[in-house]
From TrEMBL:
Name of the gene: CWF19L1
Coiled coil residues, start to end: none
Family the entry assigns: Belongs to the CWF19 family.
Residue ranges, annotated region (Disordered): 319-344
Lineage, broadest ranks: Eukaryota, Metazoa, Chordata, Craniata, Vertebrata
Protein name: CWF19-like protein 1
A Pfam family it matches: CwfJ_C_1
SUPFAM superfamilies: HIT-like
GO MF annotation terms: RNA lariat debranching enzyme activator activity
Residues in Cwf19-like C-terminal domain copies: 340-447
Stretches assigned to the Cwf19-like protein C-terminal domain: 464-556
GO CC term, one of those recorded: post-mRNA release spliceosomal complex
Length: 559
């Protein structure tokens, strides 16, 4: 039975949650990665999920539905001995070996409750949920194999949807390969190099169709990318965000996630303001430089970095000559090196020095790779932050030259605060933050000993069931945490370090809470920076005072 390009999902897909005559607007869906012939494993898992969480409306399978295993298991479903517990929609072949299972390129029923969507097309449910699908792997050669798609396929699919009046995007996009460059500006994709892996044609398709969810497989791993925006801020009207999810293979021994449950209200039924609401962790579009400049059949180039901004400026006329972007006196070398391109943020960033969002009146020192700024709502008047000038998320991701200058700032601040009868504590929280902020908090030597501070952190960690481990004094955080991993660490004035690997949730104000506690500074009302804000005029006064006091120690200034 061939499927037309647009099909109505019958109401008998609506289980106990909805009566057959009045389907609700929310669709409860499951998406699955490569099944590879493990039908019993998959459907047993689906039954268990439905028993625990209630019935789902449909199961969407991407990647290789059939594997190289014998057909005995499939025959039981094909002949009706066994039945899929949920309406299941699958993509077509990705290799010559499995082409034999998909006889009708326009889609057909493979077994009861299991439907092959077809080579490419749009599937629209009775609720208005719009699913776009593209089977196979990319091929730029003619003739195109039966398990591949061509630039023409992508062009025709995109054109068909764009021809619809007031096209805003689609609800779901199903492809087997990943889109190339999907990792740009996003969280780590693990072992998959998205600059080399994946399909540039699918990148183009995703850019044009703006799916709210995009599912893919084939790489035998799970990757849920941070959501990305589909508009250019301040230049285009706000649009909905896209979530890309790659799923692992069914029954994989590493127990990587292969099933993804989600609820979705069809776009056409949503209020515009609700639809375009941006998630707090949204990033720039990973393909933003591509499709507008490349034809549909060409490989899409990776986004280019903007050239390094010349944003080193005088904070005070009395602080010496303006420094060049190399961090040295412009007169010291007749042939200064060209500035290196800096890592760019995925969107607006409050801490990238070139960003208009930065509150530059808080900046108190600027080096070649890092800068120093007073903390907004600080625990004390001289609570400062060490921040990289370019966009780095954590200490773990810093380049060698940036690490070197961070260490130089740390040593300088220790000397500065020691001259004032204080010790300083440093901490970093790489969790729900997009730009590295190394907090530096000075504490009067008379207030407490280093051991008291260490005990306070360990005690409060235990109370909150946080495993805070002591790590060797001269150890490198990079040896413990991988790029992209969430963590919290404290560095005491003795060089001792305490480290916690964040696995799920973590109290955002933990570091401040410990230092503000009765055991240390005894200012518990200042544990949240938002409760400590002062006027801009007061901030400017504190910044001027800090610059003046710090000037004799500031290695960034000319002699």
């Amino acid at each position: 039975m061939a499927l037309p390009k647009t099909e109505i999902i019958p109401c008998d897909n609506c289980y106990e949650r909805e009566s057959a005559g009045s389907c609700g607007s929310t669709r409860n869906c499951l998406a699955c990665g490569d099944v590879e012939g493990k039908f019993d494993v998959l459907f047993s898992r689906v039954r268990a999920i439905q028993k625990k969480s209630g019935n789902f409306d449909l199961l969407l399978c991407v990647g290789n539905f059939f594997g190289s295993t014998p057909d005995a298991e499939w025959e039981e479903y094909k002949t009706g001995i066994k039945k899929a517990p949920i309406q299941t929609y699958v993509l077509g072949a990705n290799n010559q070996e499995t082409v034999k299972y998909f006889q009708d390129v326009d889609g057909c029923e493979l077994a009861e409750n299991i439907t092959y969507l077809g080579r490419k097309g749009v599937f629209t449910g009775s609720s208005g949920l719009q699913i776009v699908y593209l089977s196979g792997t990319e091929s730029l050669n003619e003739p195109v194999p039966g398990y591949s798609f061509s630039p023409k396929d992508v062009f025709s699919l995109r054109t068909m949807l764009w021809s619809t009046s007031q096209f805003k995007g689609v609800d779901i996009l199903l492809t087997s390969p990943w889109p190339k460059y999907v990792g740009n500006f996003g969280n780590s994709s693990g072992e998959v190099d998205t600059k080399k892996c994946g399909s540039a044609l699918i990148s183009s398709l995703a850019t044009g169709l703006k799916p709210r969810y995009h599912f893919a497989a084939l790489e035998k791993t799970y990757y849920e990318r941070l959501p990305y925006r589909n508009h250019i801020i301040l230049q285009e009207r706000a649009q909905h965000a896209t979530r890309f999810i790659a799923l692992a293979n069914v029954g994989n021994p590493e127990k990587k996630k292969y099933l993804y449950a989600f609820s979705i209200v069809p776009m056409k039924l949503m209020d515009v303001a609700e639809l375009v609401k941006q998630p707090p962790d949204v990033t720039e579009n990973p393909y933003r430089k591509s499709v507008k400049e490349a034809s549909i059949g060409e490989q899409i180039p990776a986004p280019e970095e903007d050239s390094a901004c010349q944003f080193f400026f005088d904070l005070n006329e009395k602080q010496g000559r303006k420094r060049s972007s190399t961090g040295r006196d412009s007169k010291s070398s007749p042939h200064p090196k060209q500035p290196r391109k800096l890592p760019q943020p995925p969107g607006p960033c409050w801490f990238c020095l070139a960003s208009p969002e930065v509150e530059k009146h808080l900046v108190v020192s600027i080096g070649t790779h890092c800068y120093l700024a007073l903390a907004k709502g600080g625990l004390s008047d001289d609570h400062v932050l060490i921040l990289p000038i370019g966009h780095y998320q954590s200490v773990v991701e810093l380049s060698a030259e940036v690490v070197e200058e961070v260490e130089q700032y740390k040593a300088t601040l220790r000397r500065f605060f020691k001259s004032q009868g204080k010790r300083c504590i440093l901490f970093e929280r790489n969790y729900k933050s997009h730009h590295l902020q190394l907090q530096v908090i000075p504490l009067p030597l008379s207030r407490c000993a280093t051991d008291d501070i260490k005990d306070a952190f360990i005690t409060q960690a235990q109370e909150q069931q946080i495993e805070l481990l002591e790590i060797p004094e001269h150890s490198d955080i990079k040896q413990i945490a991988q790029p992209g991993a969430a963590y919290f660490y404290v560095e005491l004035d003795t060089g001792e370090k305490l480290f916690h690997r964040i696995k799920k949730n973590f109290p955002l104000q933990f570091g401040r809470e410990v230092l503000a506690s009765e055991a240390i500074l005894n200012i518990p009302d200042k544990s949240d920076w938002r409760q400590c804000q002062i006027s801009k005029e007061e901030e400017e006064t504190l910044a001027r005072r800090f610059r003046k006091d710090f000037e004799p120690f500031d290695f960034t200034l000319d002699d």
